[in-house]
């Protein structure tokens, strides 16, 4: 294996350790991943705005700190992609929209500030659907992101490029954001680990919080930012850096009373787990049912947990989800920006903005959210964890918003997201973990949901499952075909 390939297959924990002990320089790591990006981008289109000059300068700064005997930070020299919905000072942040084609923020998002301070090296902005209003990876501005496991398929979204970049080893981890599943969706479809910590663990600003920017300011009551990685430990390491309160985010909560990395090594023996295969109502692809049901058995057979099939018992709340999104959206500002440019934009987004919403629709949706939250905490009082499939289907072809048929039933284009958005309504911690593959070789994700604020339990269960059924050694065939 070439030196580049060896570096690009390392996890973030290993890269940081080798840079700190001078086995590798941050510059060597950066050059290796930039060369890999050049080879892969024509195939996967993960990065809408590569930033090689920014990366080289950051890597040189890390190497200089180490040479001077200074602490380079927890993520010393680790390459990272930043989702293009997350603001980056002096770096183009387009958000997949022609309305922001030339937008360069004047400040970093809080997570970007923290990652840079910890020595991470930003290698580029990763592709998204327009303003993130979709679970897939195509937009009107950049080429569609493709799934490294099958280039004809979507990588999922809205953290589309983040998923494709990590799955193909361009960076060991990436920043995703998640308003209805957008960390967990591409992680599941690309064979990765991704975690949406409890609402408020990771503060957001200016994203979802800055009224100056219509579209950027959306999703305030739903959005989370978090890691996507090939290992559980890498996500935990990133959470250690990006969590903790900030006065710019009124949702942010005090720092955790546990260590994120240590949590991944804890025993989960004796935990009570509920397993819901379909919420009691959702059509789910038979292969997804098979793969996830087999994976759930690991918790009982190998890890000493008790697993019961059970459903929280609500009717499908998805029809109200987009109403809550619309209620979080600056409709006046976005309609003003959109005027006369509708044909340049994504049709589903234009339809949401043009619809004449009523006050009753907004308040009805809020009542549905309250119902879901109350059913969920009552249900979780009996269980430590709730496990579901992450998605109702494996990856499907590019340029679709979602499949039209699941399990021989006609569905709406959002029904495949039936498992993820629930935890954005409730704010609970939720992770997706690779559960296995379909017969055609597409990854399938399993979702691990914790009680309110029980991120520690989710990380412990994730770490235990990874130990029992490791996956990080599996790579898409595309890489060997390209000699990577």
Automatic annotation (TrEMBL):
It comes from Bradyrhizobium aeschynomenes. It comes from the Bacteria. Belongs to the amidase family. The lineage of its organism: Bacteria, Pseudomonadati, Pseudomonadota, Alphaproteobacteria, Hyphomicrobiales. This is Amidase. InterPro entries: Amidase (IPR000120), Amidase_dom (IPR023631), AS_sf (IPR036928). Residues 28-459 form the Amidase domain.
């Amino acid at each position: 294996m070439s030196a580049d390939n060896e570096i690009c297959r390392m996890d973030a924990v290993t890269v940081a350790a080798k840079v700190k002990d001078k086995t590798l320089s941050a510059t060597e790591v950066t050059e290796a991943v930039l060369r890999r990006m050049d080879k892969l981008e024509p195939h996967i289109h993960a990065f809408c705005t590569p930033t090689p000059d920014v990366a080289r300068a950051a890597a040189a700064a890390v190497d200089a700190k180490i040479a001077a005997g200074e602490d380079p930070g927890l993520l010393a020299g680790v390459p990272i992609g930043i989702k293009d919905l997350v603001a980056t000072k002096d770096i183009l942040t387009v958000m997949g929209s022609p309305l922001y084609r030339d937008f360069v923020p004047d400040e970093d998002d809080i997570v970007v500030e923290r990652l840079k301070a910890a020595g991470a090296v930003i290698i580029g902005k990763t592709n998204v659907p327009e303003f993130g209003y979709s679970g897939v990876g195509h937009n009107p501005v950049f080429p569609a992101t493709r799934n490294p496991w099958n280039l004809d398929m979507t990588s999922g979204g809205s953290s589309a490029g983040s998923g494709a970049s990590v799955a193909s080893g361009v960076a060991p981890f990436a920043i995703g954001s998640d308003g209805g599943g957008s960390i967990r969706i591409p992680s599941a479809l690309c064979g990765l680990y991704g975690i949406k910590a409890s609402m408020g663990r990771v503060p957001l600003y200016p994203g979802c919080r800055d009224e100056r920017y219509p579209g950027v300011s959306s999703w305030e009551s739903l959005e989370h930012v978090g890691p996507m990685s090939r290992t559980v430990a890498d996500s935990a390491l990133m959470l250690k850096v990006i969590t903790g309160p900030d006065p710019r985010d009124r949702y942010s909560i005090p720092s955790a009373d546990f260590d994120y990395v240590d949590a991944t090594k804890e025993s989960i023996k004796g935990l009570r787990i509920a397993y819901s295969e379909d919420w009691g109502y959702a059509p789910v692809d038979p292969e997804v049912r098979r793969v996830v049901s087999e994976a759930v058995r690991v918790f009982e057979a190998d890890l000493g947990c008790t697993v019961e099939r059970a459903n929280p018992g609500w009717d499908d709340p998805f029809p109200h989800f987009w109403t809550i999104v619309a209620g979080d959206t600056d409709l006046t500002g976005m309609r003003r920006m959109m005027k006369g440019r509708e044909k340049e934009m994504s049709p589903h987004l234009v339809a949401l903005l043009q619809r004449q919403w009523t006050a009753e629709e907004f308040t009805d949706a809020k009542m549905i959210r309250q119902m879901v939250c109350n059913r969920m905490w009552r249900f979780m009082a009996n269980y430590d964890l709730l496990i579901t499939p992450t998605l109702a289907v494996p990856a499907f072809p590019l340029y679709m918003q979602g499949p039209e048929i699941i399990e021989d039933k006609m569905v709406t284009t959002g029904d495949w997201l039936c498992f993820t958005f629930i935890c954005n309504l409730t704010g609970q911690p939720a992770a997706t973990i690779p559960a296995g593959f379909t017969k055609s070789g597409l990854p399938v994700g399993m979702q691990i949901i914790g009680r309110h604020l029980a991120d520690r339990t989710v990380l412990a269960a994730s770490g235990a499952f990874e130990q029992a059924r490791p996956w990080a050694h599996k790579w898409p065939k595309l890489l060997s075909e390209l000699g990577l």
